[in-house]
From TrEMBL:
Keywords: DNA-binding
DNA-binding region: 30-49
TM regions (residue ranges): none
Every HTH tetR-type domain range: 7-67
SUPFAM superfamilies the UniProt entry points to: Homeodomain-like (SSF46689)
Protein name, UniProt field: AcrR family transcriptional regulator
Organism for this UniProt entry: Paenibacillus favisporus
Record carries keyword Ribosomal protein: no
Amino acid sequence: MMQKSEAGTADRILQTAIELMKDKGFKAVTIKEIAQSAQVSEMTIFRHFETKKRLLETAIEKHSIVTSFQNLFETQITWDLEKDLYLIASTYLDQMEANRSIFLISVQERTTMPELSHHVSHNPKKLKQFLAHYFQVMSEKKKAKIEDPDKQAISFLTFLFGYFSSLTFLGNQFITDSKEDFIQHCVQTYCRGIT
């Protein structure tokens, strides 16, 4: 079992590596550079992660949003469509914002490290499953008219991902509404379409 200070060291290494890789790209960043920035020895990095690739995979696993969404769907759903979709949308955008660096690395390295897509794509696939199940139950409860829960889940997540991507790549010149205003408008529009 990892000691508390070792866990703190590993987290510091991960955070440093993520920021450097986001700014420079995976291949351009060296273990030596990560070690210097994290104020640890190169041997410490190898002891914790063995390789630079494993370090990145660990960062992606650590920042998985699956657990928080599983908890949301198991404990926070009220079966009120508008409230639930607002909660789901807010949580999704908060999690994506918290993981912006991982997202940017995956976009930068999609051609040089196609296996990275496998790790990163786990999050949206699981989230789609959770949301499709939610829509299926809402349909069974006669609280929404949903013919294809999978397509409804993809549609809703595409709204959210589009907002996050636009904000990430185009910034405030393109997105002028606040996140809360966007979520409110998106959820209300979506609810009108399926109730």
